[in-house]
Amino acid sequence: MNLIGVDIGGTKCAVTLSTCYPINIIDKISFETKTKDRGPKEIIDEIIFNINNLIDKYKIKIDAIGISCGGPLNSKEGIILSPPNLPNWDFVPIVKILQDNFCVKTFLQNDANACALVEWKLGAGRNAQNMVFLTMGTGMGAGIIADGKLITGANDNAGEIGHIKLSENGPLGYGKIGSFEGFCSGAGIAKYAKMKLNDEDFEDIDTKTLAERAKKGDEFAKEVFKEVGEKLGEGISIIVDTLNPELIVIGSIFNRCEEFLRPSMEMAIEREALNISKNNLKVVKSELSESIGDYAAVMVAIYGLKIDDNNDEEADLRALKILDSMVKKHNELSNLKDDILKSYEQIKSTYKNGGKLLICGNGGSSSDADHIVGELMKGFYKKRPLKKELRDKLNELFGKEGEFISNNLQSPLCAISFSEQSALTTAFLNDVNADTIYAQKLLGYGKKEDTLLGISTSGNSKNVLYAAKLAKALGIATISLTGEKGGELSKICDVNLKAPQNSTPDIQECHLIIYHALCAMVEEYFFKN
């Protein structure tokens, strides 16, 4: 599934092409908004032009568009309603304009809500049901997740926490003296520092410079952040008492200055918030940090389409079609369908949790282990372009040569065959014991997130068997691929794939069909285009 993300800002706009889960940003085009020189029509025309450029460049069909834009706006009607950073954008029907041009579903969200969705689905908020994301950037806004749903409010103003008044005196923010945004935004922190100063050297200070001074030990800068941290804690306490979230994720300035903000923030929360609410609260920095904006508009499209990365039925259904097709062509393997599906789920879970597939076997099964690695570590049926961040870094460092490298690499699914490393293998066979060679390699490579696939036509190969036993001791998941009898290996492993044959050549013919189906199913899940 190909998605377009459109980020509309007062300073710059960006158009992003991405796949769906896992989100892989293929390309991004940024341009200056130039609101002083042109109105919404000219800017939207450039957005449309750049979307068409991406479609033509990659010769793809897009499936949906997500738009992230500062408020006020009406997300349900798809209308931008005069944001202060976008002069003359009065009642602009942006969703209808893009839908009419590209004939695909299009969705609009406030930029704070868009960032909240990204952090909730991909970052520090994964698995949280009640979470608040605080932007703490140029301004201070919030995206609210309550009971597993994004809360937008009656007219999309939910989360405008920057307007909360924290003090009768203080810097101006969101049109109010002493507001949450006045104290706890980039513009506000700089204003607050200037209010406290008599030293002309600080006349042009900004928050970035203040942070640099604090990191160098400047006591005044550290004091400013301490006081800002206290106000941050007071603002958070209001949110905690009102919404009772389990998690608050803070972006931008908090990511860069947490060490100066957290101590006084926590003291204020301890002092101000209700015990019953604060005891269940965690306050953390954004996991996606500076890259969150690249994903925000794309996530608006994903959320609008009601696609869930933790229960991606569409991808699983496509993987099941591969399995059904295999069974239809090889009816003798129909009884293995449930076990193949269990193996698919286990391997999928391994990759989602950052693990790898470790494979071992002897003779023909050793070759099968190598074969499986070959299908997983590069494209099998699908092209697997590198993530945009890596491609951009290669291009930045090495120019055309970097572009050549990135264009000739494919995203891998990490897999290691224990048949490899001949020097280690022969040394161990000579110095220790052949029966424990695969256990030794598992000891070196294995971690709890991994899965061990043991291949043995008899199910009784000692070196595979001992590796499986060590895997159980280490808490590593195990899958066996054997003949019909299963042998001792099938008594140990979590999932058992028993080819319905008894002679070694016939078993191995079945094994090829089984692991080809598994490789294709896993690839289908993680690389959907």
State the low-pLDDT regions, or none.
none
**Number of DSSP-assigned strands:** 19
Strand proportion:
15-25%
- H/I helix tally: 19
Give the N-to-C terminal Cα separation: 6 Å
- What proportion of the residues is helical, as a percent range? 40-55%
Reading side by side through the largest sheet, how are the strands ordered? 3-2-1-4-7
Radius of gyration: 28 Å
Shape: globular
Task: Assign the structural class, choosing from mainly alpha, mainly beta, alpha/beta, alpha+beta, or little secondary structure.
Answer: alpha/beta
Task: Give the averaged pLDDT, no decimals.
Answer: 91
Largest sheet: 5 strands, mixed
List the helices and strands and how they pair.
Layout: E1 2-8, E2 12-19, E3 25-32, H1 40-58, E4 64-69, E5 73-74, E6 79-80, H2 94-102, E7 105-110, H3 111-122, E8 131-134, E9 142-146, E10 149-151, E11 172-173, E12 176-177, H4 180-183, H5 186-196, H6 207-215, H7 219-243, E13 247-250, H8 253-272, H9 275-278, E14 282-285, H10 292-304, H11 313-329, H12 337-352, E15 357-360, H13 364-376, H14 388-407, E16 415-417, H15 422-431, H16 437-445, E17 451-455, H17 462-474, E18 477-482, H18 489-492, E19 495-498, H19 504-526
Parallel strand pairs: 1-4, 4-7, 8-13, 13-14, 15-16, 15-17, 17-18, 18-19
Antiparallel strand pairs: 1-2, 2-3, 5-6, 8-9, 9-10, 11-12
Could you describe the 3D structure shown?
- The chain is an alpha/beta fold.
- It contains 19 helices and 19 strands.
- It has helices at residues 40-58, 94-102, 111-122, 180-183, 186-196, 207-215, 219-243, 253-272, 275-278, 292-304, 313-329, 337-352, 364-376, 388-407, 422-431, 437-445, 462-474, 489-492, 504-526, and strands at residues 2-8, 12-19, 25-32, 64-69, 73-74, 79-80, 105-110, 131-134, 142-146, 149-151, 172-173, 176-177, 247-250, 282-285, 357-360, 415-417, 451-455, 477-482, 495-498.
- Helix 3 crosses helix 10 (292-304), helix 7 crosses helix 8 and helix 16 packs parallel to helix 17.
- The mean pLDDT is 91.
